[in-house]
Amino acid sequence: MPYAVRLLEVLLRSERIVHLTISPAAVQVLESEMNRRLDLRSFQAEALLGPVGRELNLARLHYYHHQDFRAGIASGSFLTAGMVICPCSMGTVAAIAHGTSQNLIHRAADVHLKERRKLILVPRETPLGIVQLRNLTACAEAGAVVLPAMPAFYTRPQGIQDMIDFIVGRVCDQLGVPHQLFARWGC
Ligand SMILES: Cc1cc2nc3c(=O)[nH]c(=O)nc-3n(C[C@H](O)[C@H](O)[C@H](O)COP(=O)(O)O)c2cc1C
Description:
Layout: H1 2-13, E1 18-21, H2 24-34, H3 45-49, E2 61-64, E3 83-88, H4 90-98, H5 104-114, E4 119-123, H6 130-141, E5 145-146, H7 160-175
Parallel strand pairs: 1-2, 3-4, 4-5
């Protein structure tokens, strides 16, 4: 979840409009990993973003309940610059690989694939079983970018924040969002 929270912050600081949906399982993970409690029925941006939420232009953030299939992002006619699922569970990878579309996250991912728009999956699982590898392959074959949350060490990270920023920066590279979150190799 620290990857997701930082990505949201970076996108909002970059003056992007962000359409956000969150699964119930992500609420559990947020509490376990960041000690933050979110109620998806009455979404409060600061409960997700923490104190940094006060510095951001939240008018650019549009939140949808995960069962709200009327949301714009459920339709191919609603234009976006791309979609990121961060972090992406193996369950969600399976739903996308097989098109079973049980919630708004799965549906919006299906839409991005069928519209040939950028879909970036940030799985965080290790080791990977054969079913998971096959599902990830199916997603990649359908056009998704599989970008595992796998921090680099050539950047000589000074702490966890640097490791988070490396992954968030690589997602931003895929989205075409300029950033200076890490020092590039060869520069
Ligand atoms: C603290 C915590 C960490 C988890 N980490 C992972 C993980 O790294 N990868 C994964 O696939 N599932 C993980 N899970 C399990 C998912 O939450 C679970 O598979 C859930 O059904 C995913 O639902 P979603 O894809 O709708 O978010 C974790 C659960 C908890 C509580």
